[in-house]
Design a protein that fits this description.
The complex is a heterodimer. By secondary structure, chain A is α+β, with helices and mostly antiparallel strands. Helix content of chain A is 13%, strand content 32%. Helix content of chain B is 38%, strand content 17%. Chain B is built from 11 helices and 8 strands. In chain B, helix 2 crosses helix 9 and helix 5 crosses helix 6. The chains are: A alpha+beta, B alpha/beta.
């Protein structure tokens, strides 16, 4: 059975911490960092390894800071 | 084996499925966190990338928060006087019929000072796309009441809420222009969830295709949030928009082409 594995890369210096991606993620694998970036925003960061690469977070990100990678693996 | 796939093994150029389009200039957007402007900018650029029309597109920026749109969109842009973007776009599209032409306007620009330009451009069936961002407020200047402010909605110039007996009724300009014979495709969308973003992109794509095919004016309203003006967090603002804006400004196609079939 094929399974999708994804990974996201967030440009943390461009992230403004609006948290829209957190609510958009169906797998809840995005959290807000405790630290802040150079502009003082709590940036988003990926967590866990359940990402399926659905691109929801990247599509809804107003600043377009999320890049999504996806591979199909057969189990 | 799948269980041993590490993050570094997934993050490779051949596995890329989504990245910020290179047609967006590589600089931080000037908008507030969570603002819908950035999403709509990116959608327009993605469509132009799909159409391979970077050299054949002219955009007209408005006055308002998106006045600096030409700083972010890597295409030919002009910046119009307040509300006069449809007038400029008329000239551009008539002089350059082989170009994709669009205006990008907010509600204070399009529905207040530019009402005459908007309505006459729509009525003349000019061949360009109007992208209308409606957040119910003058965001750039500090959250004053706009023509699109909802009844009872608070703004800095109506701190007790809009009283329609004194301040008049909100203007549903999208429904208004849909009545005009010159408009070909009129729709209202939003960009607060991934599904809505994808729908908005489809609507924008149709609008660009129709206007390039000289079918008439295409008008795409995007109901957006203004979390700074509404004094909320971005997530709260999106929820407020769903609860309050959408009952008054319902999403969906308002005027669809008669000759485009049932699949609309």
């Amino acid at each position: 059975m094929a399974k999708l594995k994804g990974a996201i890369v967030i440009d943390i210096e461009r992230c403004k911490g609006c948290e829209v991606c957190v609510g958009a993620c169906p797998e809840s694998v995005i959290t807000m960092a405790k630290g802040v970036n150079g502009k003082g925003y709590h940036f988003a960061e990926p967590t866990g390894d359940n990402c399926t690469g659905c691109t929801n977070c990247a599509v809804v990100c107003p600043d377009g800071v999320i890049t999504v990678y996806r591979v199909k693996v057969t189990v | 084996m799948s269980e041993t796939l590490t993050r570094d093994q997934i993050i490779k150029p051949e596995n890329l499925v989504y990245r910020r389009t290179p047609l967006m200039v590589d600089r931080p957007l000037s908008y507030c966190p969570g603002c819908g402007h950035g999403t709509v900018h990116r959608l327009i650029m993605e469509i132009i990338e799909e159409l391979d029309a970077q050299a054949r597109t002219v955009g007209v920026a408005p006055v308002g928060c998106s006045v600096l749109a030409y700083e972010f969109l890597d295409i030919d842009m002009q910046q119009a006087a307040h509300g006069r973007a449809p007038a400029l776009a008329t000239a551009i599209s008539r002089m350059n019929p082989d170009k994709y032409v669009f205006t990008y306007q907010g509600d204070g620009d399009l529905a207040a000072i530019g009402t005459a330009e908007t309505i006459h451009a729509c009525n003349r069936a000019e061949n360009f796309v109007i992208v209308f961002i409606n957040n119910g407020i003058y965001g750039m200047t500090g959250g004053q009441m706009a023509p699109t402010t909802l009844p009872g909605m608070k703004a800095s110039t109506c701190p007790y809420g809009r009283d329609t007996a004194i301040m008049g009724n909100p203007l549903k300009i999208t429904e208004l222009v849909a009545q005009l014979p010159g408009t070909y495709f009129v729709t209202r969308q939003s960009v607060h969830t991934p599904a809505n973003v994808r729908k908005t992109k489809k609507a924008l794509r149709k609008a660009f295709d129709y206007s390039f095919a000289k079918k008439g004016l295409c008008f795409v309203e995007v109901v957006s949030n203004c979390n700074s003006g509404w004094k909320m967090t971005p997530v709260q603002a999106n929820q407020w928009m769903v609860d309050n804006m959408f009952p008054f400004y319902p999403l969906g196609d308002i005027k669809v082409p008669q000759d485009a079939g049932e699949k609309e």
